[in-house]
Design brief:
alpha/beta; six-stranded mixed beta sheet; 10 helices; about 30% helix
Length: about 325
């Protein structure tokens, strides 16, 4: 990060994607380590940000797991969401992989209303799924067979969809970018597809109206007010390990360089990823395949995605524990 970009992570700076991740990790560290971590008022000349814990300095590096020069999803849409907020708090809309924000009306205004309503009533640190109407295409290819070939978001559920089906079908579920977390909600989508399939004759096709499940969350208390959208370029496949490993290695190298150049009691690397669900993350596997000498100087690595925080590298020791041992 440049000096101006580091300034965007100081405690008095406005909300941004890196700042949102920093707020989430500071709160997560507080609940995990039973201590209070505060973002420093002044930007660091070395680290992307500094967290203060009493008289201890935690040096923080923030890395995005996509191209560094990729443009943000839609700053104008962020401003629209922020203008609709009814409370002076910070919020995040998590753009699912492959999804794009509509630029044409009425789709743009419809999404604005849906996400805005989803943000209402959220408590600090709370997350919620928002149903976004989408239309799938289902076609009956032939009378023989008993299966449904699926492209898009429901491809992992093709065997369940095909159970007891009469004929051969193709389902285009590419408008689905994020499946619901609850199995009961997924069952509703699958049942709707199967019900429509039962009505088709050979070489007929039909629309299937279902919902995409986007995620929104409210940042911890005292976060800067506003709304940001966390989203990678639409052409980035989060299941493709090559670009993820490349971006991860780049972030590790930068974090190690900052650790060597700066003064801190604990070094933290925050990675931000655009995932449908945290269970899809590839960073843990990438770390296991990395030479420990590359990241050995770092204390803590965490991943921020899907409205939550996951620890990837656990600290070998903590400064407050070392001080107690030496006392």
């Amino acid at each position: 990060m440049t000096t101006s970009e580091r300034s965007s992570l100081a405690s008095t700076a406005p909300l941004s994607v890196p700042r949102a991740a920093l707020e989430m990790v500071a709160a997560w560290m507080g609940s995990r380590f039973y201590r209070t971590f505060r973002i420093a008022d002044e930007p660091s000349e070395v680290f992307d940000a500094i967290l203060n814990q009493r008289d201890r300095r935690i040096g923080v590096t923030v890395g995005l797991l996509w191209a560094e020069d990729a443009p943000p999803p839609d700053p104008g849409f962020e401003e629209l969401l922020a203008a609709d907020l009814e409370t002076d708090a910070g919020f995040v809309a998590w753009l699912p992989p492959g999804a794009t924000l509509p630029t044409e009306e009425p789709s743009r205004s419809d999404l604005r209303v849906l996400l805005g309503n989803g943000l209402k009533g959220l408590e600090p640190g709370e997350r919620r799924e928002v149903r976004i109407p989408v239309t799938l295409q289902l076609a009956k290819i032939q009378a023989d067979g008993a299966y449904v070939s699926v492209t898009g978001g429901l491809s992992s559920a093709w065997t369940t969809i095909s159970e007891g089906i009469d004929g051969a079908f193709h389902l285009d579920s590419r408008p689905l970018h994020r499946l619901p977390a609850e199995a009961a909600e997924l069952d509703i989508i699958i049942s709707r597809v199967r019900d429509r399939a039962a009505l088709l004759n050979t070489e007929e096709f039909t629309d299937v109206h279902v919902h995409d499940y986007w995620l929104v969350s409210r940042l911890p208390a005292d976060s800067p007010p506003g709304a940001v959208i966390v989203g990678a370029p639409a052409d980035l496949d989060p299941k493709d390990g090559v670009p993820i490993r490349r971006a991860f290695r780049r972030a590790v190298e930068r974090a190690v360089a900052q650790r060597r150049a700066g003064d801190s009691d604990l070094s933290v690397l925050i990675l931000v990823s655009a995932l449908a669900h945290m269970e899809d993350e590839l960073v843990t596997a990438a770390l296991k395949g990395m030479n420990p000498a590359l990241y050995g100087e770092l204390d803590l690595i965490v991943l921020v995605a899907d409205g939550s925080v996951r620890q990837v590298l656990q600290p070998r020791s903590l400064p407050w524990e070392r001080e107690r041992t030496h006392a």
